[in-house]
């Protein structure tokens, strides 16, 4: 198994839960914000999927990429389509990274003040997704979602 395949297996175990988490929330709650100034439920999902692609694309390129343009996320269907599209694009980008590239440095001095190895950047991506997915679980619970999916998919 390549390093990319190993990473993708772990990443999908977390990313793919977004679909089940979205299904647990009613359409009326896509714009829910737990406090003034917080990202909405839809915006937080977009933040996860767009940042994931940004990190993956940057890792493949060796330098900071550009963030994808945010689509209209007013409905559950639009959010689900966005998750699907950007999950596939992110998967494809990570799958293109060779084992040798995992040691390459990615120039992210503007963002992190340092150059990071591809492996460290992808780990940062996974940590970032897990962090924000945890927030989404809290959002969903505050919106009355019950039951909630397990935090990770296995098998």
Automatic annotation (TrEMBL):
Keywords: Metal-binding. Coiled coil: none annotated. A divalent metal cation binds at residues 47, 128, 132. Gene3D superfamilies: dinb family like domain (1.20.120.450). InterPro entries: DinB, DinB/YfiT-like. It comes from the Bacteria. Transmembrane segments: none annotated. GO terms for molecular function: metal ion binding. Signal peptide: none annotated. Pfam families: DinB. Belongs to the DinB family. This is Putative damage-inducible protein DinB. It comes from Alicyclobacillus sacchari.
